Amino acid sequence: MADGETSGDYADIARRFRAAPSGPFHGYHTARRPEPDPELTRVGPGTPCGEYFRRFWVPVALAQEVTDVPLRLRILGEDLVLFRDKGGRYGLLHLHCSHRNASLEYGVVEERGIRCCYHGWLYDVDGTILEQPAQRTEGGRAKFCHGAYPTIDYLGLIFAYLGPPNEQPAFPRYDTTMLPDVEMVPYSIHYPCNWLQIAENTMDPWHTVFLHARVTDIHFGDTWGIAPLTEFYTREDKVFATLTYRIDDMIWVRSQETLFPSFSQVGAWWEDGREEKYFRRASITKWTIPHDDDNCMIIAWRSFGPGIDPKGFGNREQVGWNSVDFPGQTGVEPYEYRQRHPNDYEAQVSQGSINSHAAEHLSFTDKGVAYLRRKIRKAIRTIQQGGSLPEATRVGDEWLTHVQDTVLPIPVQPGREDWELLSEVTKAVMDVVFAGDRYSGAERVKFIETELRKIKHDARFLASTA
Ligand code: FES
Ligand SMILES: [Fe+2]
Predict the structure, then answer these.
(1) How many CB atoms lie under 10 A from the CB of residue 441?
(2) Residues 106 and 181 reside in one and the same domain
(3) Residue 137 has pLDDT above 90, yes or no
(4) What pLDDT is stored for residue 50 in this prediction?
(5) Ligand 2 centre from 40 Cα, in Å?
(6) Ligand 2 centroid to 205 CA: how many Å?
(7) What is the pTM of this model?
(8) The last residue of a domain, from among 165, 184, 202
């Protein structure tokens, strides 16, 4: 850190930077960019943010990446090896062999566990040392275990828990992963930058107006360039945003959310708000997971099937490792092309290896980003103080989320400010969505859809015929 500054005085760093003399041709005074905020961005073992991540199950790889040879991974600043033994069990171990530190990425996957190539030590998936050939150990077994983490294979993503064993939480099975008419297709995209600037994009809905519609190209629906009415909310377990658009005679209410530690969901990228629909759910269900301070990945599912994509806009053949079926997310195009047609990847990665918050000037459109940073900072400090974090609302085995798109036929009311109408309709929609928290599964969906359909007949939202 610069000048011995600590995370505790990061606000001072920002204040000093912003108080520098300013004016035309005054670049000299702000040439030295402030350091990033370590409390929110450093993720290695023992760091506050690293401990925060180490209280959750997080996806670390796609099941399809695990073959008959070990897979080397870097997660939260730790070098690890993931493998599937011939008995079909996944193991996630510290990369370096406990004997003399050879990398287990060169190990041999066996019927039970993985064997180091150097002197043949054999490790079980839980880190138990099964064999130490040629060692004179009492009873034939080591008295210590190799570093290992529990894993769960869920819908093609391998999740791991890297935290203290006695604080292992329940595994989150979110509602959007259990919809009967939706297929979850795993993918991951790697980014050469800090996790936070990727994760906070969901809480920056105004970028969709400019980056995706107005500044260079229309990337998704043409209606994305219409300025939405935005509201931001925090709940115990999440930050969420509503974006409400007036599209001719329709009102489109979109909600998207970010839950601990870095889990986000957004609606369909092809949605344009022109057709009536109710409680259409996530098209992307994703985590942003740090490899280390300067690298991260989105690891996620894309949703396919009639429940989210009745017209078949998505292309599941293009979804997988380092790819997804919409452009501008991977940085694979030539540099000049990306300069002329910047998209999410360019905007986020170009903030720097680790974005310097102290050099930013947040404003009205950044309310969601500010909420999210505050929420995460508070959560990090809760963990530091020995506390625990709230889980998402659960009904039985189903963890409830609230991402959705609803499009209602409600025309402009003559003599009434339209933003006021949009605001009231948004509130009515989200009240129904949250009222559904008493139910789960099909019962919840039925309740919410039925109640949402009533809104278009609500006298408050009908144009007066007088
Ligand atoms: S270094 Fe792995 S067995 Fe010796
Ligand atoms: Fe975007």
Answers:
(1) 15
(2) no
(3) no
(4) 98
(5) 22
(6) 8
(7) 0.95
(8) 165
